[in-house]
Amino acid sequence: MASNIHPTAIIEKGAEIGDNVTIGAYAYVGSKVRMGNGCEIHHHATVDGNTELGENNRVFPYAAIGGQTQDLKYKGGNPGVRIGSNNCFREYMSVHAATSDGDFTVIGSHNNFLAYTHIAHDCNVGSHVIFSNCATLAGHVTVYDYVIIGGLTAAHQFTRIGEHCMIGGMTRIPQDVPPFMMMEGHTPPKIFGINKIGLERRGFSPERVEVIKNLYRIFYRDGLNRTQAKERVAQEMDINDPDVARFLEFVNSSQRGLV
Predict the structure, then answer these.
(1) Is the pTM of this model over 0.85?
(2) pLDDT at residue 172 above 80?
C-alpha cells in the first residue's frame, strides 16, 4: 500500500521509507533514516540521524528520535540509533544517537515510552518495557525486558535494570537493580520486594515465584553482604534453576554494585 505523506512534511533526499507509512504535517525525516513498513510519524515529529526504525512504530507530535548525543566526548563520525518494531514514542520524548563512530543506541520492540521520557546515548533497552512520563536514562544504561519505570525516575550512567523489575516514581537509580525486584526511593533508594503481580501476569507459576521470593530474602532480608548471600544461595537453592542462574549471572556481572 502506498504511503500517506502530508505535503508539508520534509523528507530529506536519501531517506528510505517503507510501505503504508503515514507522515503528518510538518514532520521531519532526515536523509540517513531507514523506516520500516506501517510506521506512523505524527505532525511535528522528528526522526533524524543514522536511525533505523522497524515496522509499525508510532512517533507522536514533537518527539525527537535520532538526534546527536549530548555527550561532550562526541567527536563526529556516524553513530546512530537502532529500533525494533511496534513501539510507541509519545509527545516530546527523545532518543539520542550513540557517541562513538559505529556505535548505536538500541531499543527493542513492543515498548511504550510516555511523554517527555528520554533515552540517552549508547543505552540498550529491551522489549515490552514501559517508561512513565519523564523517566530518564543517562548514557550507557541497560534496561532488560518487561521492565516498568515510574514517572520522574532517573537512572545513572552505566546502571542496569534487570528483567521483570518495577521501579516506583521519582526514584533515583544509582546502581544495578537485580531481576524480578521492586524498587522505590531517592535517598536512599531501596529494594522492597519482588514484582509478584507482574510475574504472575506474565505466567510465572507459584513455584517460580517462591524461588524468586527466596532470592529476595537471602539478598535483602537476611542481613548478608553480597558474597555471603551468594554462598547462602549455593547452599540452600538449586543454582541450575533458570531463575536462580539468571539472578546470579546478573549479580556476578555487576560493575556498579547492587541497589
Answers:
(1) yes
(2) yes
